[in-house]
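Weekly puzzle thread! Below is a chain. First person to post its structure in token form gets bragging rights.
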Amino acid sequence: MHDDPEHELELTSSLVPLFVITNGWTLPPDHEYERTALVCAQPGAVTAVRTLSPEARIVLDLVAEGFLSVAEVAGHTHLPLGIVRILLAQLEDGGLILVRQPVPSAERVDRELLSAVLDGLKSRFGA
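Winning reply:
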């Protein structure tokens, strides 16, 4: 064993099950964060983090400077995406973060409809 006080077992080590990091939480169904969802800390949230786990504090510190995607948060923390999603759900429930879901892809344009509109405009205004 090491007697060095700085050498502590990290909660993210392979010896600690991942459910310990989330305190046994599972992802609530209304918190299905996509990888491209953007996350940032609420103003003043970083000062009110005394009761957070070390991993949740790291996540909050990461997003304190601005928006990061869920995938970027997972990459910076080296935690699995599922664990990051659970931590984000905890932070969002506590009012500490703001989550922006990605804008849905635009629907395919109906080319026939656009062609008919263009033909109508041409016939109406002459072109």
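Puzzle host: Confirmed. Bonus trivia for everyone else. Residues 5 and 76 are 25 Å apart (CA to CA).
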